[in-house]
């Protein structure tokens, strides 16, 4: 379920939650723990007691949590990240709550698949019943955001945020109603 939380984060935000490939150094375990600490909260030793490598055991303090460098903040930035990615405030809170259900250090405390599927963040409209006017407004908003002129509308800084959907296939211009065509090449 931890992995499902990471996948959900990537789907909503468009980036990896814990991009460990950026830090393949001797300090990798500490950097990974710092990432987890900043997003989920203090990393406790207890759930991993029997599986820790000797060099990692020394990273834990007497309080049972990973020793963090001075100034390292613990907590969650899920609401802020969701708001920066254009989620409405209620949806951002729902997203944060679900992420915290997935990302429990003790796997016995994590949300089950069945529970996750009934979470309000995954339900249409957050499980809220919309009035007729709200549904019309939402449909109009979706129609305008799906227009060809809007691009992909991903988060700022994305290399594909400015790309327009392609109108060619195998080097040949296509009309939108034609869909992809075979260019004579065998695949």
From TrEMBL:
| GO MF entries | ATP binding; protein serine/threonine kinase activity
| Region described as Disordered: spans on this chain | 135-187
Kindly give the Gene3D superfamilies that the UniProt entry links to this protein.
Transferase(Phosphotransferase) domain 1 (1.10.510.10)
Which spans does this entry mark as compositional bias, Low complexity? 138-150
Q: Which organism is it from?
A: Caenorhabditis tropicalis
Annotated Protein kinase domain residues: 1-122
Q: Could you name the Gene Ontology cellular component terms for this entry?
A: nucleus
Transmembrane spans: none
Among its keywords, does the record have Transferase?
yes
Record keywords, A-Z? ATP-binding, Kinase, Nucleotide-binding, Serine/threonine-protein kinase, Transferase
This protein's superkingdom? Eukaryota
Q: What is this protein called?
A: Protein kinase domain-containing protein
Q: Which SUPFAM superfamilies match?
A: Protein kinase-like (PK-like)
The family assignment reads: Belongs to the protein kinase superfamily. CMGC Ser/Thr protein kinase family. Lammer subfamily.
